[in-house]
Amino acid sequence: MKILKERIMKDGRVFPGNVLKVDSFINHQIDTGLMAEIGEEFKRRYDNCGITKVLTIEASGIAIASFVAYKMGVPLVFAKKTQTKNIASDVYTAKVTSYTHGRVYDVIVSKEFITSADKVLIIDDFLANGQALLGLIEIVRSAGAEVAGAGIVIEKSFQDGGKLIRNSGIRVESLAMVSSLENGTVTFED
Ligand code: 5GP
After folding, report:
1. Closest CA to ligand 1's atom 16
2. pTM value?
3. Average pLDDT, the chain
4. Of 4, 8, 52, 126, which sits 20 to 30 A from 60 (CA to CA)?
5. CA–CA gap between residue 46 and residue 51 (Å, rounded)
6. Ligand 1 atom 23, closest CA
């Protein structure tokens, strides 16, 4: 997606640990015009797939996914991160290792909001090692629902997540594929 890649080149910042910061338009301050275009693009890619719900993970996924869900005319559900020891029985749960914080946490979704009748599009801001996506896939499958695919804004294709998830048979659509962050420079695949 050309405007997204141009924006990353202009405003993205590379940090140690292969972290790309996009705080000025996605992760802290949000460019809602760009989000609307991203929503439209995912709608175009997943049109006619029978999506009934969009699912993401708090916090950064929510803004993006709400534009996607709005454009598709379906509800947005977000998985909540929790450190509670006693997980309630009325939720689906998965363990996720955070790429940026290194911590393991439980993510939960109320059983009320995803059911076996759902076909789910999973949305997230970044794909690195695939841990967040795997957690969300586990939750959808625990509900007996179908994963229609995943929509990622920025995939770091030099990390293993994309390969892992695609090899498991799940469709992954990424709007920008970053092939390297070496020497503080963002390089795209195409
Ligand atoms: P994964 O679970 O695929 O290893 O990492 C994806 C999650 O970690 C995303 O939800 C995102 O919040 C965070 N993340 C991974 N890499 C980056 C990055 O380079 N920049 C930012 N801002 N977040 C990242």
Report:
1. 128
2. 0.97
3. 96
4. 52
5. 8
6. 126
